[in-house]
Amino acid sequence: MKAFLVPLVKWVSASHLSMYLKTLVWIWPLCETLHFIGLAMLVGVAGFFDLRLLGFWKRAPISACKEFMPWAMGGFALNLASGLVFLTMFPAQYAYNISWWLKMLFLFIAGANALFFETAMGSRMVALKPGEDSPVVFKAIGAISLVAWFFVLYFGRMLPFLGEAY
Amino acid sequence: MDDFLLWLQNLPVFVAIAESPSNWGYATVLMLHTVGLGWLVGLNTVVNLRLLGVAKRVPFETFEELFPMMWWGFWLNLVTGVVLFCLDAQHKTHQWIFWAKLLSVALALVTLQRQRNYLFRSGEFPGTDPVPAKGKRYAWTSLGLWWIATATGRLMAYVG
User: Is residue B160 included in any domain, yes or no?
Assistant: First the structure.
């Protein structure tokens, strides 16, 4: 793994884009700020929907609550963009950091879980009436999502402590 | 004043948290502060988005039980925030951006409470669409103040 990573990290780090970004003193604080604003939007909207899947606020139809989800995607897009800036500027502090790989793992779990809900559960969601209890599979998806997002945030915030990112 | 702040940050409990090599010390307090931020600001954002016309099929009464949950995030951040302050009291007191953050958080919380009163206690809000201009104003004010609070909080690591 490391044999593959080392040349890639060196290449990204020495790239024109990386060198240029490193000359902009304001870009890192700006992207950190955007990363946290995006985080709140993503975690808040996804958390609201996950709690609905778990059986909270049953009066609101699940399909209606799902209409918030493009805003979670918006938060994610903001974080993907700002995260790519971090990665391009200093790839070594992520590529060799166990915390970053664990963050990516839980990001994958959260994404796969959401994709499963989107592709396999659509008809069951529409059939569910307001006030009706969520099926067990919905509760499981909501719980997995909440736990996965918690660990994305956990390992993201622990980057400087479990590894050596700043 | 500085003597008191130094005394505070040199209390054994705060020195232990600040200097502990364990990830259960400073790192965990900081991580929990981010969890509280995501919870409080994120859930308030959902209400604000609804007031601004997103997900119109979600009835407003849904959010009545959301407001107490937002306060869990606040209490978590009050506790973790006080600890984070005490670890570095002298430096933070002299950071203008720290005071800007506290002011914006305070204003955002006042807005949160007024928004809640407007929606569920005043009898002023119709409870259905279209949302009156006052409701939209609350939403934009809340979003703006939370963005400023988040930005100033994050920039404490770089500015002032």
Answer: no
